[in-house]
Structure formats: C-alpha cells, structure tokens
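Input.
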Amino acid sequence: MESLFGIGPMELAFIFLLAFILLGPRDLPRLAYQLGRWARQAQLLYAEFRREWEAEVQEISREVEQATTTPPETSLPPTVATYQLPPSSGITHADPSSSEPGEGR
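Output.
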C-alpha cells in the first residue's frame, strides 16, 4: 500500500486508534461526516475555480490569436499641407521672421 501524505499504513492505523480513544465511538462518526463535507466543499470550490480559470485562459488565447492573425487597424495622422511657391514668383527662400519678402538676415 502506498503512503498517504507520507504516512504509512501503521501510522494511519495509529491515528485512527488515537482518534477513537480521544473522541469516543459517539463523536467519531460525526467528525468523519463533517470532515467529508468539508472535503467535498473544497473539491467543488476547486472545480469551480478551475473552470473559471480555464475559461479566462481560453478567452485570452482567442484574443491573442485574433490579434496576431488580423492586422491592427491604425489610423494614420492627417498629412500636413505643404505650400509650394509657384516657380514664377522668383522667391527662393521664405523666412517668416523677416518683415519684407526677400530680405534675409
């Protein structure tokens, strides 16, 4: 027989005998019933936690997969309007800090 939580069959029998002596035949079944209920509640809570965890992991996996398969929608900034002087104006350089056109510093 394999050990249960590192406790062999002889140690387990000693624990049951000690519990029987300390609690008596009347309280031991009640205690065993209560421990069984607690263990069942712990199993149900663990199963619920695991289901929720797996659902979250699957949702995140779908989001990651969708993000990697579809290209992101990026909106490009509007282009800045550029002003070009007509070639016949004769002005080659426009300095906004100068007061008169054609005057350079």
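The helical segments are 9-69.
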